Amino acid sequence: MGKFLWAWVAVAGWVLVIHRLASTPALRVLEVARQGLIRLNWDAGLRVLELAKTRSGEEWARMGAHVLVYFILGLLLYRALHLSGFRAGAPTGLLTLALGGAVAAYDELLQAGVPGRHSSLGDFALDLAGLALAGLVMGYLLKPKNRWLPS
């Protein structure tokens, strides 16, 4: 398969990861991180994580997770669109935001029906922030280099 098809397979795979996370009842970000650190056998990371295990620590981790998950989706979407023939720039960034925003809306609606989970406009806004950040980063990285030189 060519780069074009693999790029869209990566997008679809990441959307499945988002679906899995959204449909997991009573998901706690710090607990997921703890399980990962145990598998990596990273004691220093576990000690730092223990310090963060407060109500506010979980809230900050949850907010960061929303931005990170959708930042990755945004990178993958922008790359797939770029390989599909869209030029780097604002229109591609806006399309990334629209497509990713549809996934984020689905994510929030799905969570509304999962026990121990909730849906919120704040989470949706964090998802959009991650997508927008990815669009800005990719737009900058994929612009022709000579555009930034003084004429």
Keywords, separated by commas or semicolons:
77% helix; 151 residues; 0% strand; mainly alpha
List the topology elements.
Blueprint: H1 3-22, H2 29-40, H3 43-52, H4 55-83, H5 90-112, H6 121-142
In summary, what is this structure?
By secondary structure, the protein is an all-alpha fold. The chain has helices at 3-22, 29-40, 43-52, 55-83, 90-112, 121-142. The model has no long low-confidence stretch (mean pLDDT 79).
* Terminal Cα span: 41 Å
Number of strands: 0
- Structure annotation, total helices: 6
Fraction of residues in β-strands:
under 5%
Tally of domains:
1
Low-pLDDT stretches: none
SSE string: HHHHHH
Mean pLDDT equals 79
Per the principal axes of the C-alpha atoms, what is the gross shape? globular
Oligomer: single chain
Question: What share of the residues lie within helices?
Answer: over 70%
Description:
With 151 residues, the protein is mainly α. It has one domain. 77% of the residues lie in helices and 0% in strands. It has helices at 3-22, 29-40, 43-52, 55-83, 90-112, 121-142. Helix 1 (3-22) packs parallel to helix 5 (90-112) and helix 4 crosses helix 5 (90-112). The longest helix is centred in the middle third of the chain and has 29 residues, at 55-83. The radius of gyration is 18 Å and the shape is globular. The N and C termini lie far apart (41 Å). The mean pLDDT is 79.
